[in-house]
Write a structure and sequence with these properties.
Organism (chain B): Umezawaea endophytica
CATH architecture of the largest domain in chain A: 3-Layer(aba) Sandwich
Protein name (chain B): STAS domain-containing protein
Helix content of chain B: 25-40%
Pfam family, one (chain B): STAS_2
Distance between the termini of chain B: 26 Å
Shape of chain A: elongated
Oligomer: heterodimer
Distance between the termini of chain A: 42 Å
Strand content of chain B: 25-35%
Order of helices and strands of chain A: EHEHEHEHEHEEHEHHEEHEE
Largest sheet of chain A: 7 strands, mixed
InterPro entries (chain B): MlaB-like_STAS (IPR058548), STAS_dom_sf (IPR036513)
Organism (chain A): Umezawaea endophytica
CATH architecture of chain B: 2-Layer Sandwich
CATH superfamily of the largest domain in chain A: P-loop containing nucleotide triphosphate hydrolases
Helix content of chain A: 25-40%
CATH class of the largest domain in chain A: Alpha Beta
CATH topology of the largest domain in chain A: Rossmann fold
Order of helices and strands of chain B: EEHEHEHEE
Strand order of the largest sheet of chain A: 3-2-4-5-1-6-7
CATH superfamily of chain B: STAS domain
Largest sheet of chain B: 6 strands, mixed
């Protein structure tokens, strides 16, 4: 089955046979039709799939899922950019993506962010001709995780059968539920600066505090880039505050809401020729920060930006 | 937004906050033709801009494209973190756009 429209399916599987019953026809049909096919899953699943595909084994693109976007905004960007590179519009063909998320070892907030992204892909990739199947292995994913898979995907694929999910939740409703989880309170000792005033002074404050908290000048400057795109959503009656948290540096910006913010703003990479979508600059914020939490309520918008801390040993991309 | 002409080399220095309301004026100034170097470069120093937002970058990139149609170019002197952002969105090699580091276009 193929069509030119966007599809986003879950594929719950219990063993290798069920994985292959879904993955082999999905990939083989795509290769036969000349459609681009990307598979990001575990190394073991990639090997199983290649062995099963025989002469079609070299007909698809693949990547270990752990390395195809470390964080949700990076992953969404990688999918969108793969589509941009591979799409040939007007051909009646899909761009196929088999993308298995990794869940083991994640914190509760990480899991919530990844599930939120799964739901958000229904928005971010809408309007494309991506056909995405997201496998969920019941041997490693909890029952709760499976339940959320059926909330974030309109259908579940078993073999080649697509079964509509009665539990599917509208992505904006799902994001609202995720964003209803309260943020931890700002520490009383956090140094706060009013947003009212000279933007140069605001920038100097952020850099100074970030350096005091152990970031080097480069990371402190990158934090100001992340902050800049949030300011459009806040009136200048608000404040900025920075504090350390679990090895990271948290930057909070809060104020009366100056504009509505789509919950999935900043997940699709901006395009120079596309009309400016309000909030599309948040893509930069989301690429720089380890996480971006937004809470909107009672006329107030709060951004919590989490920057990798001074002891983060991972290779920095800038 | 404050635009200050500079003489040697000819160009502009931008400082202050650049709002959405400033973008059309910025575009007009860059296209106006009064600040080109002899080789058709419009040089803009934005290293003192505290927050360089995507909307401004988009205007700059689109304007660079318009300059390129006339054989001109937009040379941007940016702080490294702002230059990173333009590269990250994939616009650093846009037509007519040159990223400079001090006086040396790169």
């Amino acid at each position: 089955m193929n069509n030119e429209d966007f599809r986003h399916d879950a594929a719950v599987y219990t063993d290798e046979d069920e994985f292959l019953a879904m993955a082999v026809p999905f990939v083989a049909d795509g290769v036969r039709l000349g459609e681009p096919v990307l598979v990001t899953t575990t190394p073991n699943n990639i090997t199983l799939l290649r062995d099963a595909l025989g002469e079609d084994a070299d007909g698809f693109d693949h990547a270990e899922t752990a390395y195809f976007g470390r964080r949700p905004p990076e992953r969404a960007t990688e999918f969108f950019r793969y589509w941009q590179r591979k799409n040939r519009s007007g051909t009646g063909r899909n761009v196929r993506v088999l993308a298995e998320p990794l869940w083991a070892g994640r914190t509760e907030s990480d899991v919530r962010a990844w599930r939120r992204m799964e739901s958000g892909l229904n928005v971010v990739l809408s309007g494309t001709n991506v056909w995405m199947i997201c496998p969920y292995d019941t041997r490693v994913v909890s029952e709760e995780g499976i339940a959320h898979a059926l909330k974030t995907h309109p259908a579940d694929v078993r073999g080649t059968r697509s079964i509509p999910s009665p539990d599917y939740v509208d992505p904006h409703e799902y994001a609202h539920a995720c964003d209803s989880v309260p943020l931890p309170q700002r520490p009383a000792a956090a140094v706060v600066l009013s947003l009212r005033g000279d933007l140069n002074a605001l920038r100097r404050f952020i850099v100074s505090r970030a350096i005091d908290l152990g970031l080097d000048e480069e990371r402190a400057a990158m934090l100001t880039v992340a902050v800049g795109e949030t300011l459009a959503f806040l009136r200048d009656d608000g404040h900025v505050a920075l504090w350390p948290c679990d090895g990271a540096v948290v930057c909070e910006l809060s104020g009366a809401s100056a504009a509505d913010l789509d919950p999935y703003a900043g997940f699709r990479p901006p395009e120079v020729r596309a009309p400016t979508e309000f909030g599309d600059g948040l893509w930069i914020t989301r690429q720089i920060c380890e996480s971006v939490d937004v809470r909107v309520g009672q006329g107030v918008t709060v951004f919590r930006l989490r920057m990798a801390g001074p002891r983060t040993a991972e290779l920095v991309r800038w | 937004m404050v635009i200050t002409p500079q003489g040697d080399p000819p160009g502009l220095v931008l400082t202050g906050n650049i709002d959405a309301a400033d973008l059309e004026a910025l575009r007009s100034t860059l296209l106006g033709g009064g600040v080109d170097s002899p080789c058709g470069q419009v040089r803009v120093d934005m290293r003192q801009v505290p927050f360089l937002l995507l909307a401004t970058v988009r205007t700059l990139v689109r304007t660079a494209g318009e300059l390129a149609e006339d054989g001109r170019s937009l040379v941007l002197n940016l702080a490294p973190h702002h230059e990173w952002a333009i590269g990250a969105v994939g616009w650093a090699n846009a037509p007519g756009l040159v990223m400079a580091n001090g006086e040396e276009p790169r």
